[in-house]
Known about the structure:
- The protein has helices spanning 14-18, 42-58, 75-88, 101-110, 143-154, 171-180, 204-210, 236-249, 276-290, 305-308, 310-314, 326-335, 361-374, 380-386, 405-421, 471-485, and strands at residues 32-35, 64-69, 92-98, 115-119, 128-134, 164-167, 190-194, 214-218, 253-257, 264-268, 273-274, 295-299, 318-322, 340-342, 348-350, 391-392, 425-426, 429-435, 440-444, 449-454, 461-467.
- By secondary structure, it is α/β, with parallel strands linked by helices.
- The strands form four sheets. A six-stranded mixed sheet has the order 1-5-4-2-3-6, with helices on both faces. The chain has a six-stranded antiparallel sheet with strand order 16-21-20-19-18-17, with helices on one face.
- It is globular.
- The model has no long low-confidence stretch (mean pLDDT 95).
Amino acid sequence: MFPKPKANLKSNTPEFEVTPLAAATGFREYDARWLFPQDVNLMGIQALGMGIATQMSRLGVRPAITVGHDYRSYSQSIKYALITGLMASGCEVFDIGLALSPMAYFAQFALDVPAVAMVTASHNDNGWTGVKIGMERPLTHGPDQMAQLKEIVLSADFIEGRGAYKFIPDLREKYLADMTKNFKLKHKLKVVAACGNGTAGLFAPDALRAIGAEVVELDCGLDFTFPNHNPNPEDMKMLHAVHDAVLAAGADVGLAFDGDGDRCGVVDNEGEEIFADKIGLFLARDFSAQFPGSTFVVDVKSTGLYQTDTVLKANGAKIDYWKTGHSHMKRRVKQLNALAGFEKSGHYFFNPPFGHGYDDGLVSALAVCRFLDNNAGKKMADLRRALPMTWGSPTMAPFCPDETKYGVVDQVSAHYVKLAADGGKLLGQKIREVVTVNGVRVVLEDGTWGLVRASSNKPSLVVVVESPVSEQKMRDMFAEIDGRLSAFPDVGEYDQKI
């Protein structure tokens, strides 16, 4: 009988080598994510694999799963520990090797396999590991499925079985061919492809060249030490590097990919970042012109321009603001049969004819290239300036322990809900709306808004602010939220601030 995982074990001890370690906090809203080996060891990952296979059996899912890993020094060992567990509980494993998360999702379709387990820490710093899990194409686990999986793993309530293993050597080529088969540029386009030395460096330049783009590579050589900056298109260090590269090369656009390739950030030809929610607005305009009356799902961190945009209104587009998080968004896009979904973080979800329903940073990059090709003769910076002006912050993440972050958000949310109900004012204005679908988004009369929510994948909160009036209004909203958060002793330093 496989032993129950423990929450704490000391490394460099015999017990650490013969006992699974898996901290309960690693089971997050829609994936598993731990510090390795502090919070999970290889036996703990093996237990996770057994739990996934057991969950598949109890849900009536055919016991076949595709598995891949990202480019970290320890990811391959994590993957093989996971595979051991999957096979021990009866799964047939299709190992696609070194991969992007969207390549693993693609494998579910290409290999006709119902489930996926992708070993990746995404954009988290080195030291983190995790697994993105799905059992219903193109969806990944949500809170209910993660809670069930957590219970199975931590109680060691596993089934036994006899699995099988098959290595798939050529999926990368099929994946790239699938996304590029129906689109070639009609006009010249010079693109900086920035990969932060992450896994996307093995894929993005080739995908862009396949559609006819001239590609300038930036940090595309794989290096799991990430010597320049973390591969995260919301990280200002990465964006500043793309800014410099675009100007030096005279490129039309810069495209920045995260560590596992499911997100894409955009820098225009003048080196200015265009936050992903506004790129989503461009794409929604483009798509709704082709398919009038389409529905688009937008996460609560995104710009308020979706609600007021005259082009979207003229095209009859319907906008649905929903919970942040790739699993929540995928599920909502499928539920509403939306044409696409857009997250401020850079996760985009395209249903046919543009994609398979999951988030893929390379497909997003090709959509941006298609948008520019359709607007040939116009520069990206000119298109940016043509949008109504808003002043928005990057995503900011103050530290807050996993054990207390949701309680902090609940208290902040309760404060703003009560203030609005009592007719109180904020920054001298009435509160127009308080959205509590995911944390709290408080919107003032003039359209200025601020959001506080708990991060789903690391010990932190998430803060975003925007104003259509002025930069000062945006900063005033941030000062209001920051001041309120500073009253909580568990809230610590930000990863970045405006």
